Amino acid sequence: MACFQFEPQSTRRALLKSSACGFGYLAMSGLLANHSSVLATEDADRLGPKLPHFRPKAKRVIFLFMWGGPSHVDLFDPKPQLIKEDGKALSPELVGSNKSALGNLLASPFHFSQHGDGGVWMSELLPNLSRHADKMCVIRSMHTEGSAHGEALLRLHTGQANLVRPSVGAWVSYGLGCENENLPAFITISPPRGHGGVQNYGNAFLPASHQGTAIGSAELPVAKARVSNLGNARIDSRLQREQLDLIQMLNRDHLNSANSDQGIEGLIANYELAFKMQSSIPTVMNIDDETQETKDLYGIGSAPTDNFGRQCLLARKFAESGVRYIQVSTDYTWDHHKQLKSGIVAESAKVDRPIAGLLEDLARRGLLEDTLVLWGAEFGRTPTAENKDGRNHHPQAFTMWMAGGGVQGGLTYGATDDFGFRPVEKPVHMHDLHATLLYGLGIDHKRLTYPYAGRDFRLTDVHGNVVHEIWA
Fold it and tell me: Under 8 Å CB-to-CB from 334, ≥6 apart: which residues?
């Protein structure tokens, strides 16, 4: 930038003469800013692999979403005090609550024991998963905001419940791109239709190419799920290619006349990807080429594990094919406001064997070391009873776990109080979890930003700290 020097006795004419050269620099800075904006847009729409900020520990993520909120005090966080004081009123002062009453304590009906060299505590409800305890890092001190499912799901999937924000998978796609040009970077298998719906895998203000590709929905058996409008039975691929080339020519002409338009750029990229997916997606979704031993490992063909087993196997196949972020979701069946015992027994039986099979299959194929598996939900459940034999929503404390992807296996991180009501050691907020997940992928959550509505947005907003202690 020009350096202006003014003499004490300068006249107005001399001042204008000496400062005029600065106007050229102002114009140049505006042109450079526009050029940077174009480059940022082009980079944002590029679907190929991109360089991380630093050396990653993992290349991809598989998120196992338990829709409804499993009870942490019945699965991963044993509380002997609940057994001792079963049926007694929980004093708000004892757990630092400002409510006038919290209800009566409800003891877990399930036995807990320690597993693996790390001594990870797990419930008897998870006998298959317990064999993989030394692969898991169990975070007992999670907490978030939002006691309603809708708000809590949006915070889990997008970081915030206000405004329409990009989902975690969309941010990962934007930051890293995809390793396979014939597949999207972000796939969600059997996603929830309620409690935020498409926002849970949407791109929001990120380019459209980063939205998650949905396969089926949570209410539909995945064996019947298809990617919508994937093929055209009326015309062959050659004619489709000719039609697409014509459309793309018109799109590019329109883009050239507009100079820069993120919508058109995203449309062009998505059309090309959709054409390539016609041959790639059916191949990956076909499990007929898997051995019977592999299908048995996931519980495919058996009740009650067939559906979730198929989802987990598809997750492995997509991970193997270069997809960056894969989400697998249960139906809305973990919301046990009553009949907790029978409900959580049934739901655990559906997922225990498939998840254990996924970890074993990833490990033996050499994929677990660079695949980060994340298990969890929008919140946990209260240590007090609701409807006599159920538990209410509880965002104040819950458990999530990670495996593979460079985390310390056999580690239990953080702790809740004697009743599982609130974190008392090493609390981990949802923003911290997102920052930590991105860190595992080699992304600095503070640098992964996108300009929108006059400011730079990021997944963690203005929050989030990486939990470095969980990494090996």
Answer: 66, 67, 68, 69, 70, 343, 344, 347, 377
- Cα-Cα-Cα-Cα torsion 445, 451, 452, 458, nearest 10 degrees, comes to 0
Task: Name the percent of the chain lying above pLDDT 90.
Answer: 74
pLDDT, tens only, 349-381: 999 999 999 999 999 999 999 999 999 999 999
- Whether 8 has a pLDDT exceeding 70, the answer reads no
Q: What's phi and psi for 429, nearest 5 deg?
A: -80, 165
Q: Letter for the amino acid at 184?
A: P
3: left (phi over 0), alpha (psi -120 to 50) or beta: beta
Place of tokens 């907003």: 461
**Higher pLDDT among residues 421 and 15, named by residue:** 421
What residue segments make up the domains of the chain, in order of their start?
A: 55-223+291-470
User: Residue 444: which region, alpha, beta or left (left: phi > 0; alpha: psi -120 to 50)?
Assistant: beta
Sign for the CA dihedral angle at 108, 332, 320, 267 comes to negative
Location of structure tokens 């498939």: 354
Rounded to an integer, what distance in angstroms lies between the CA atom of residue 118 and that of residue 133? Answer: 8
Tell me yes or no: is domain 55-223+291-470 CATH 3.40.720.10: yes
